[in-house]
Amino acid sequence: xxxxxxxxxxxxxxxxxxxxxxxxxxxxxxxxxxxxxxxxxxxxxxxxxxxxxxxxxxxxxxxxxxxxxxxxxxxxxxxxxxxxxxxxxxxxxxxxxxxxxxxxxxxxxxxxxxxxxxxxxxxxxxxxxxxxxxxxxxxxxxxxxxxxxxxxxxxxxxxxxxxxxxxxxxxxxxxxxxxxxxxxxxxxxxxxxxxxxxxxxxxxxxxxxxxxxxxxxxxxxxxxxxxxxxxxxxxxxxx
Length: 239
Prior knowledge:
Layout: H1 2-24, E1 35-42, E2 45-60, E3 69-73, E4 76-77, E5 80-86, E6 94-95, E7 97-105, E8 115-118, E9 123-126, E10 131-135, E11 139-141, E12 144-146, E13 152-153, E14 156-158, H2 160-164, E15 166-172, E16 175-182, E17 193-196, H3 209-212, H4 216-223, E18 233-237
Parallel strand pairs: 1-14, 17-18
Antiparallel strand pairs: 1-2, 2-7, 3-4, 3-10, 5-6, 5-7, 8-9, 10-13, 11-12, 15-16, 16-18
């Protein structure tokens, strides 16, 4: 009789433990496909500037903190500058509530750069864009709970600099030269033509590095008081 009671008690304990474990992990979870790395170009070149997570439901910004997330570039920790919600999948547009959580990263920390300089080839290589993000705390999204996660591979990468300049190719017989061009909105005003010549570390024909290895083109535009986002024209060629 005692053996039967002991066995029944053990079963009850195991059942309660199983229910407790199930309840603690009964919510939703973000996946890699919901995550995006955003890059930007600063004076030292392209850096990973933010992780954007799409929760597909309203998240309250004031309930979040920097400690709710961890971000790694490869196996190197990235410093978190701010965490906020946004109604759009963009950096720098915080809102009280939004479907997107933006994890802004410190652009000047030691692990921020997306580039490696190959001293033998004397050229930059875009290598450090393999990011992971970890949700460290449970987060309320509408009427759902999103449970904390293990480190998730960040699946998407967007580079607004590259999106601003349209990729194209100049062809003259058998000669081909890729380039990037920023085209202004149509207007009657005269606009300058700016040709930016990149450094040797940004040479090649990938049609990306000439805009990512340095912010020289943005510095020149700013020094001439010609904002990149207004109706001016800029041309950047590779060599």
